[in-house]
Amino acid sequence: WTLFLEDMTPQQALERLQAQCSRAEYCTGQIRRKLLVWSGKNKLAGKQPFSQEEMEGIVGALVGDRYVDDARFADAYVRDKVRFAKWGRVKVQYNLKVLGIDPMIIKVALEENSVLFDDGMLEELLRKKWNLMRPGDTLEKKREKLLRFALGRGFEYDRIMGVIKNFS
Questions:
Q1: What's the CA gap between 153 and 61, in Å, rounded?
Q2: Do the beta carbons of residue 60 and residue 15 sit within 8 Å?
Q3: What is the C-alpha separation between 28 and 31, in angstroms, rounded?
Q4: How many C-alpha atoms does 151 have within 13 Å on its Cβ side?
Q5: Rounded CA separation 69/71 (Å)
Q6: How far apart are CA 1 and CA 119, in angstroms?
Q7: Model pLDDT for residues 21-32, shown as the tens digit of each residue
């Protein structure tokens, strides 16, 4: 925090971001948001905020030195969210869009990792949810709950219905 109480220069911001980007994947949208926050803290401390040109220069330097690569980030993001969070294609795509990833990069990342979006994962997820449901609920009620659950996880309606129809 002491760094934020002083005037953070663009060079200090670049060095700090290089260190962070060498430990984890970030996209350009996340970097821009970090710079805006840091710039705002500079301004609150009565120091000079970063100009738009300085922020874009920092982002450009990180991209040029391959610390940040939106395609690499999107690929890792898709794999992580599918494997660990058990998200479907729709939710992954939406969240990448919110992060500011180019639609073509999103499309490529989803296509390259399409094998991860198999019905086996969806069926396993729904089977676990099914086993946790109250036995007193009707079949219709249980299927409705499964549908809402899977839609919330970002799976496509047709795929969900294809899996749910096998539950009884």
A1: 36
A2: no
A3: 5
A4: 9
A5: 6
A6: 47
A7: 999 999 999 999
